[in-house]
Amino acid sequence: MSVAYAFLSRVYCAGSRIRKLGNPNVRKSSSLKNKGERPHPARTNHTTASVQDYLAAIYDLAGSGRPVIGARLAKHMGISAPAVTESIQRMGRGGYVRMGRGKELMLTPKGRQIAEVMARRHRLLERWLTDTLGLNWTDAHEEAHRLEHALSPRVEDKLAEMLGMPSTCPHGNPIPGMARPAVRFEPFPLAQAREGAAVVVERITEEAEADKNLLEYLWRHNVRPGRRLKITEVAPWAGTITASGDGQSITLGLPAAGKIWVYLPKDS
Predict the structure, then answer these.
(1) CA 21 to chain CA centroid, nearest Å
(2) Whole-angstrom distance, CA of residue 114 vs CA of residue 41
(3) Annotated domain spans of the chain
(4) 3-49 pLDDT per residue, tens
(5) CATH architecture group of domain 2-162
(6) Rounded distance, CA 186 to CA 162, Å?
(7) Most exposed: 123, 166, 200, 233, by fewest CB within 10 Å?
(8) How far apart are CA 136 and CA 84, in angstroms?
(9) Is residue 154 within 8 Å of 121, Cβ to Cβ?
(10) Tens-place pLDDT, residues 234-262
């Protein structure tokens, strides 16, 4: 534990010099091949923490499979729409993002490389903060957001090694650059599950992590990767879905359930 606390002290000293913008709960899936290759950190050297946050947020939102537009990004980051528009225009001129059809925001290769570095650091830190220091999901997410910009490539690599090269963060989201097992199932949003179905939680999306109340609720009710659930009721008229597992019953609004991805077990 002394090594862990020494690491925390080192990163906090550096992290205290970084100016954070927007929603502190906001965090930043992956174009890297599954070869265990780390995204190149040098490409973040000349970008500000604010730009890194924007790129990582776009990257995270794109992982849900829905188009990323300015209004959605503004809501996710807790920043006004005009401020987001101005920042997107500036990042467009810098070659980090481009506008697709329907005003969809898309990362350029340059922007994606930076976003993957930040996602990797954030998810490694979350894994360390939960597995080693014992923080809950909400605290780990917030602390990782504060620390990630100060993490050096050397410490990043040592941290990954110390953790045993994990393939996902505690919420099941893949860590860029880490080898991952072949996927043998088709994940889908919990909101699309049918009544009576048995499902297994695959991951809690980064979009869900940005909602502190939702993350705390999922933590308290043990809704974690690998958890088996039985869908007991789908109530479209009420906008809710209810599931049970291990003697617990949980009810979620369909928008929240859409941020939790599950799959059907082989024995279902």
Answers:
(1) 18
(2) 7
(3) 2-162, 188-263
(4) 444 555 554 454 444 333 344 455 443 334 444 455 554 445 578 99
(5) Orthogonal Bundle (1.10)
(6) 31
(7) 233
(8) 30
(9) no
(10) 999 999 999 999 889 999 999 999 999 99
